[in-house]
Amino acid sequence: MYMKQSFLFTKTIKEIPKDETSYNAQTLMRAGFVDKVGAGIYTFLPLGLRVLNKINNIIREEINAVGGQEVLMPALTPKEVWQTTDRWENFDALFKLAGSDDKEYAMGATHEEIVTPLAQKFTLSYRDLPFAIYQIQTKFRNEKRAKAGLLRGREFSMKDLYSFHVSQEDLDIYYKKVKQAYFNIYKRLGLGEITYLTYSSGGAFSKYSHEFQTICPAGEDLIYVCQKCHSAINKEIIEEQKDCPECGGHDFKEEKAIEVGNIFKLGTKFSKPFGFQYKDQLGEVGDIIMGCYGMGPSRILGTIVEVYHDERGIVWPENIAPFSVHLISLKQNEEAEKIYQNLISSGFEVLYDDRDEISAGEKFADADLIGCPVRLVLSPKTLSENKIEIKLRKKDEIEIVGIGDLLTHLKNKL
Amino acid sequence: MYMKQSFLFTKTIKEIPKDETSYNAQTLMRAGFVDKVGAGIYTFLPLGLRVLNKINNIIREEINAVGGQEVLMPALTPKEVWQTTDRWENFDALFKLAGSDDKEYAMGATHEEIVTPLAQKFTLSYRDLPFAIYQIQTKFRNEKRAKAGLLRGREFSMKDLYSFHVSQEDLDIYYKKVKQAYFNIYKRLGLGEITYLTYSSGGAFSKYSHEFQTICPAGEDLIYVCQKCHSAINKEIIEEQKDCPECGGHDFKEEKAIEVGNIFKLGTKFSKPFGFQYKDQLGEVGDIIMGCYGMGPSRILGTIVEVYHDERGIVWPENIAPFSVHLISLKQNEEAEKIYQNLISSGFEVLYDDRDEISAGEKFADADLIGCPVRLVLSPKTLSENKIEIKLRKKDEIEIVGIGDLLTHLKNKL
């Protein structure tokens, strides 16, 4: 994919948006990735949608790899299924609405109430199990305050995976696979090193559940990172838990963190109210054992901005940058166009700043704010020597290379 | 993409669903493409989501080709913007809800109220115009009755494109381009021949707007097809309009049809209430002229099922079939697995029925119901001669071809 900046309808904004207090949303708005429609409600603009889709696709690939089958459940969910699980009154922050068919609905804040009867319809015997269903869908939560930008929205995206098993042992095997898939995802998103498997309380069915927490000063959570292994425990359990449940270590460091995923052994919590059972080899009936696994792509996008930025703007990890190369022409559009076409045909994703009426300083400031991994600058001076300037967003050094050697240099850097 | 049917968690259903009256939803439910959650509310299952994504991608390619810039606006929209355009009380079938922040919201039934102020933020002068913004988003409508399956849902998908111009002439040029893009889309979806540009009443700004209507006995609309050219007029205007607005012909044939798209010259209807203006070359201020262009991917999916089926099930057009090839093994799984792998590595999209406990008759019935364009059957008899059976879903003839020649035969047929 490629795009000329003169074509893009969005522009960067110099002023920090007044009605927004979070760094991630302020910066994403200034750089033209999102627009704010209301508190906790955003439009994804062309640059932001590109990043969101890249995050979604990485998640999709890794969840497909552990056998997740993608579906798309509705956002509009009937009252009855929430009553079945006793969550119509008890689920925090459900948006409720009345239909002109005299029925009541909730906007999906999570989808156990939809996926459980769905799985039930297609499960006739133990031979149909296990399987796992997921979606990447919009969720709605009626938050009183929504001040953390993309970290806590009233409307946000979620990958939610649900698995169905004949036994706890079978769930345990799958749970472990998904845990590994989550690590793979965070690694590919550039968050691997700073994201910790975090033990949290587990409910009736298992001693622990797990959160994935990314260390970040903007985080609303406190976690306690084991100094011996790459895991942590959350605030909820630090009081009763003196040892690391992963390795037995007992030296912890307190860190602020953002929850970027959670996985949970549900057991029979949802299968029981729906009467979701299976028949085993002997015709005996058993309750279905479930797991659920959440991860929020839009929250992850906000987290990455909180983690990867400097005073000039965003510094996108390569795998999810809106474009890998930002080509800037300083009034050398004829030659820059050739380079642009050459980069495109070599498979690079290029944003090309071909705008005439914008100064060099503004173009550089925009490139730093938008944060593509590589910046190329073609100026009268470099062109006179048949050269081009190349700079990584995350480094300060500038290199001047021959235009003929550009592709080789780029392939080494990306 | 490829999939083994033993892996797929959905199954076909023999009985016609009792609580569903429309053919499209009954059949999509029986074949495992959608599941019904409530009246006019469906889950897209793995097969259905594949088709929906293919439709979305064809639309996306053609709208990108006419310069549409993709965004994703929220479904949750604040009351204030609907009050600005006087539609909070007047828009038919808005789902409304109350936030715990003491604000009221509508679930987006259309997005003029969101896109107009968005475009306004980034439009400083005539030099920024024209541009066009679109999304593929879920829409919500509080329908009293929802009986037409995917043709009229409470929750449904929509591609909505909006364009912004300095003048009526500039809008006219763009409107014509989008009209052509729509024809391209219907052609690629297999609906070209039976979809008519249909004149309808146009509001204050233009004499006509246009619907795209697909002829189909299940249609809720009546259109009058000009017998001289490939266009039609709708019921609304047949009484005052005696001649075809396209060619002047006056011989019409009444047909039932489904509206699969509409395009509309909005003029200043939305720019005026938002005070959305531009400055021209001389510094003079003018109102922005807008167009809007809708198309519903989930409704199109339902339409295709209404149009392309026989008594045994769906007959998908090739471009949007969930898989192009349905390979059936009749207890020849070892050899079938080789053919499956060979088809995959040759780039075919294959659904492979590797299920052991299912009879040949049931496998054939499933294949006909699911409706992939090509069916391959490997049986003991064909395998003994190193051959395989090949049949097109839309034809009755069966061919027996050498396994070594299979790829060549498939390439000729697909």
Report on the architecture of this protein:
- The structure is a homodimer of 414-residue chains.
- The first copy, chain A, is an alpha+beta fold.
- Chain A folds into two domains: 6-310, 2-Layer Sandwich (BirA Bifunctional Protein, domain 2); 323-413, Rossmann fold, CATH 3.40.50.800.
- Chain A is 29% helix and 31% strand.
- Chain A is built from twelve helices and 24 strands.
- Chain A has helices spanning 23-30, 46-65, 79-84, 112-121, 168-188, 235-238, 271-274, 297-307, 333-345, 360-370, 380-384, 406-413; strands spanning 2-4, 34-38, 41-44, 68-70, 76-78, 95-98, 104-107, 131-140, 155-165, 195-201, 208-215, 221-226, 231-234, 252-267, 277-279, 285-287, 289-295, 309-310, 313-314, 325-329, 350-353, 374-378, 387-392, 398-402.
- In chain A, the strands form six sheets. Chain A has a six-stranded mixed sheet, sandwiched between helices. Chain A has a five-stranded mixed barrel with strand order 10-11-14-12-13.
- In chain A, a hairpin with a 2-residue loop joins strand 18 and strand 19.
- In chain A, helix 1 packs across helix 8 (297-307) and helix 2 (46-65) runs antiparallel to helix 5.
- The first copy, chain A, is elongated and about 80 Å long.
- The two termini of chain A are 16 Å apart.
- The model of chain A has no long low-confidence stretch (mean pLDDT 96).
- At the A-B interface, strand 2, strand 3, helix 2, strand 5 and strand 6 of A face strand 2, strand 3, helix 2, strand 5 and strand 6 of B.
